[in-house]
Amino acid sequence: MITTIKNFAKVFFLLDFGVILFCLVNANTTWLLNTQIAFFSSLFISIATFFSYQNSIKKRLANSSVDIDTANDRDKIDEIDDPYDLYSEDGVVEEEKELTAHEIKTIIQEEKSKVKRNSLKNMIVNGGSFVSIYRLVGYAILVVGFFYLVNHKLFEPFSYMVGLFIVPLSMLVIKLTTKSVD
Q1: How many domains does the chain have?
Q2: Is there a contact between 145 and 43 (Cβ–Cβ < 8 Å)?
């Protein structure tokens, strides 16, 4: 995982170096300032997002109490869709009774209530990754840098956007050009 981050960082800084050279060759310090403020705030936000989601996944795995036996149990919707368990991997067929329309409606209502509870629980559990202190600091740097440029009449939208999009576009290009190892 660290090698992946290093590979991304190499591409980010290589592209940023190209932008810096372009600005220096053209002797345009305003462009240089705009692109660098945008680049570093975008880079910080991306890295903070990565680490906050990584920590969220680690916490979820540490707190996971799913047993292997209970993970293979069929829920009520599976029992309705496949009452004879034809699509299971173990091949054991259990005889079950036919469900009435009222029973099916009851089961569906129970499953809907579970989904609502689980989605609220999921939002609360993952809320920490949404409001990670690192991400908040990254967005604060972005806003402060933007207002600094605007207040000093140095803001150039095109160069600022170039700086902002170096990180996301390089990530996209790297992911599209590299083969998946999965």
Answers
A1: 1
A2: no
| Continuous H helices in the chain | 2-25, 29-63, 68-71, 76-81, 101-130, 133-151, 157-177
Q: What residue numbers bound the domain in which 119 lies?
A: 2-177
Q: Identify whether 182 is part of a domain.
A: no
Spatial contact of 37 and 150, defined as CB atoms under 8 Å apart: no
Q: What is the distance between the alpha carbons of residues 78 and 84, in angstroms, rounded to a whole number?
A: 10
Tell me how far apart the alpha carbons of residues 118 and 2 are, in angstroms, rounded to a whole number. 33
Q: Tell me, yes or no, whether 173 lies in a domain.
A: yes
Kindly state whether residue 21 falls inside one of the protein's structural domains.
Answer: yes
72 belongs to a structural domain: yes
pTM confidence score? 0.64
| pLDDT 10s digits, 89-125 | 665 555 566 777 887 788 888 777 766 666 666 666 6
